Each structure stands twice: as structure tokens, then as C-alpha cells.
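Re-run with default settings, no changes from the original entry. Doing this only to confirm the output is reproducible before filing.
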Amino acid sequence: MPQGLLQKQCFVASSGKTDGLSDFAWKLMQAEERSAALRNQRVITILIATMVPAFSVLDYFAYPEFFEIFAVLRLVCTLCALFTYSAIRSKWGKRYYRIFTVAMPLIPAFFISLMVLLSQDPGTPYYAGLTLCIIAIGFVFHWTYQEAFFGATCVGTMYLLASAPAVLNGMDVKTAASFVNNCIFIAANGVVVVSGCFVHHRYRVQEFLMRDRSRQQRIKLRAQKRELIQTLEELNQTENQLIQSEKMASLGQLSAGVIHEIGNPLNYSNQAVFLLRKLLRSENPNGRVIEAIDDIQDSIDRMKEIVRELREFSHKTGENNIEHPLADPVQIALRMLGKEIESSETTVTIEVPEEIRIEGVKNQVTQVLINLIHNAIQAMSGAGWDRKNLIDIKASADGEKALITVRDNGPGIDPENLSRIFDPFYTTKEVGEGTGLGLSICYRIVESHNGQITVDSKPGEFTEFSISLPLAQATAGGTTPHHAKPTHTKYGQEVF
């Protein structure tokens, strides 16, 4: 560390400079200095309150003629120290604690100087008490070298002023030698203490800088630990989502086999119904039987249509880019979600003109609509209010594009989440309830069809997804009506 910076740091407590320290570290160091100063004030107060009165025995042997007045001075000195200590415990004293820190060791020095003045003895052995005051500055208090220099200078000045009358009135050689000796020792103690405070404070600042760096490193490590924990949680969630996706893929393969197995009994049932019709022609027909057979035939035809759509949806044979009415994938998606629509008591309103035709993979367009409708049903079902669940599906043609919207009256999406909902693995659902892949897959499918998908939402009111897809060439070149008679689907049952 450069010497100039060290010197600036050594003076930080007195000059207020914070070179090498952050604002927070500077305030923390001030708090530590204040705490140490308050503790040391208690120590020096105890020393003054015990040692100053106890040294009255010296007065009895050295200056018996001044014993009583010196005893009074010692008592007043003790009271002043106790008063100063009580003052520093106040709010004002804690704020300006350094003033009291400097003043405390000067109190006994002042009263010792008064004793020297009263004794008229420049060569007094009481100079040792003044050196003790200087030593207290260096070893008890956390002083800067400026404060130590000020304190030592004050102690030396007090001694010179107290000795001045006797010096001016004349001294013998022995007294003069003792006076010079005392001055030299007081000055030497001052130099040693000032130098020690300089080095000590420099080391204190360096040590605090090291602790501050260690503290910042611990904070950084704690932040990294939190990030790692969050990353691990996200990885666990992603792993669970991937496992769920794998289950869904396996379920898709299983459903393909089930569809095949269902198809054969349906064919046999269809043939059996055909034979029944043939037998009824040769006998006296019964109207109720014919009506029942017609109902069976309708149910079989409906099941065959569902099986066909499921087979097309779950096999690669449906991955062909063909021209088809936009209403087809809408109806297929609603039939596949019929049970969920019915159980959630959702009313679906459809306004999709049959004339609107698009060119694309019907299977993939159906997948997009299934995801959007399914998400809308889940959002409305989890809203927890008494509002009736509504989904509005509309389509229109504009130039060379077909626009289809899926709007629900669910809880909506928070504005901060709108920009992330198409990100892979992003979901606001609980773990296990969603993979976070549905909308990202929708985005990829629409993008592969040279289209666009956007979202608009108002929390507490609605969410609307808008999908723009290219029209088929014949539709784009002709005239397409923008409105058609709506078809309403309520609780999974079609109402015309």
C-alpha cells in the first residue's frame, strides 16, 4: 500500500477523510472507535477515582504543609472526572465523545500542575504524575497522533506555566537541574506517545481495512450461496418439468396404441349395426328399435371421428402442410377439451367463419389452440371467484393474414410477467402443475408458420392471445367475410 495512502488513512478519525474506506465501512469504524472510547473512559475514570485520592500519602511525605489543600484538590479532581464520565454517557456527550476523550486525561494533569504551582517547586517529583497522564493517552485511549500531540503539548505547557513563577524568582543549581530533567522526561514521554499513537492508529486502520474486506467477502459469498441455492432449486424444478414432459411423451405414445385398439371394436360395432339394419328390413320394423339403432350409429360415428382426430394428432401423418379451414383445428381442440370445458363449467363462444382457410400443419395449429384454451380454463378455475368462466374465440381475415384471438375473463397476467411467458420453462404455476413449455412451443409453432403470437392482459379482467397466420392462396385472393353466425359451446355441448 502506498505510504501516502497509509498516512491519509491514519488521519481518518481526526480529519474525516475516508480514503480506502467505503461510506458504510467509515461509519462502522466510527462506531467501533466510539464504543472503544466509551469503554476506555470508564477505565480511566476508575483509575482517576482510585489513584488520585490514594496518592495523598505522597503529599504527606513530600509536602506535609500542603497536605490539606492538596487533599481538597484531589477530591475536586475526582469529582470532575466523575462528572465528565456522566456527561459523556449523555446523548450530547456520545455525539461529541472525542472532546471528552481528550479532556479526561487533562483533568488530573491540570490539578497536578496546580499542586506544582502551590508548592513553588520546579524540580518537584510530581512531574511523574504528568508523565502518567501522557502514558494514559498512549495506552488507554484510541487517539490519533494529532490528538496525542495536542494532549502531550497541553501537559507540558501546564507544567511550564506552573513552574514559571518559581523559575522567574530564581533557582539553585540542583533545582534547575531537576527542572530541566523533568522537562526533558515530559517531552520525551510526549514524543514516544505521539509516535506510538501514529503507528498504533495506522495499524488499527489497516486492521480495520482487512476486516472490512473480509466482511465484504463474506457478504459476497453469502450472495453467491443464495444464488447457488436458487440455481439448484431452478434445476430441480427443471428436472421435475423434464420428467413430467417425458411422462407426457410416453403417454402420447401409449394413447396412440390405445387409439388403435379402440378403432377395431368400433369397426366391429359398426358392422354389427349394419347387420341389424339389414335384418330389420326383412321383418316388421319397430320404430323405437330403429331410433335406438340410429342413436347407436350416431355415437359410433362420433367416436370414430374422435379416434380419427386423435390418431392424426398423435402421429407424424398429421404433420403435413396442407390447406384447411381455420374452423377445423378450432373444433378439434374443443372436442379434445370437451371434458375439461364441461367440468369447469366454461362457456365457449366461437366466431370463426368457415370461409377462412389457412395453409399449414393442422395438427400443430390444433396443438396451439389446445394449449391456449387449456391454460385459460386452468387460470379461470384457479381464480377463486364466483364469476362465470367465459372463453371467446374469434377469427377474421385481413389482407393476406388470418387473425384468431382467444380471450378469457380470468385473473390476467401481471405486467412484469408478460415479457417472459413465452420463455422455455417459465411458469407461474406450482411445481408439478405445469412444465413451462406450452407457450414456448406455441410460439415456435406459430413462428414456423410465418405467423405471430402476441398477448394482451389486464390483471383481474382478461387475457387475450392473438395469432396471425398466413391465409391460403385461394382465400387470400378472394373475398372473405369478416363476420359469421357465431356457434356457442356451453359446458362442452354444442348449441346452435
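The longest helix spans residues 173-282. The domain at 321-495 is CATH 3.30.565.10 (Heat Shock Protein 90).
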